[in-house]
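Below is a filled-in request sheet from our internal design queue. Each sheet records the structural input a requester submitted and the sequence that came back. We keep these sheets so that new team members can see what a complete request looks like end to end.

REQUESTER: design group, bay 2
PRIORITY: normal
MODE: inverse folding
CHAIN LENGTH: 152
BACKBONE (tokenized):
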């Protein structure tokens, strides 16, 4: 009787081991897929956030005259135009190359020292102030504002 029970227990454990291995294999296949599903077969609805417009013209492929075929996963990517961010306006431009009486205290964007009344200043197109000598040195090396990186 013990031998029959041992054989039964052995076959039961072997069956459970096979079941665990099968479940593990299936789970590994799901984890290897990018989002757990295979969308290239076209079966089922597209994942949330993806929209496919059947009325839209299909992108050209190798038969359409281009050198490279378009990968199937790029057919549903929507292109959205991106606008440039507005430049930072720190202060209104001065009316003269000198800081006038009553102007707010401003720091030079290069040396970070205060630009005081009567000093010569340079104003970049992005409206950032620098000392005249700091701006001249910067323009020799780099043609961008050190604060916002806008081209000068």
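RETURNED SEQUENCE:
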């Amino acid at each position: 009787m013990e031998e029959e029970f041992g054989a039964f227990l052995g076959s039961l454990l072997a069956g459970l081991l096979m079941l665990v291995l099968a479940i593990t294999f299936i789970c590994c296949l799901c984890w290897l897929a990018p989002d757990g599903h295979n969308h290239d077969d076209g079966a089922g609805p597209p994942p949330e956030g993806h929209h496919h417009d059947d009325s839209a013209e299909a992108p050209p492929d190798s038969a359409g005259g281009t050198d490279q075929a378009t990968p199937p996963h790029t057919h549903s990517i929507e292109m959205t135009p991106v606008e440039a961010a507005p430049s930072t306006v720190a202060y209104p431009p001065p009316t003269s190359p000198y800081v006038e009486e009553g102007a707010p205290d401003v720091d030079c964007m290069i040396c970070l020292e205060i630009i005081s009344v009567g000093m010569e200043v340079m104003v970049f197109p992005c409206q950032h102030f620098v000392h005249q000598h700091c701006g001249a040195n910067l323009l020799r090396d780099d043609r961008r504002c050190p604060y916002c990186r806008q081209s000068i």
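SHEET NOTES:
- The first strand starts at residue 106 and ends at 107.
- The mean pLDDT is 69.
FILED BY: M.R.
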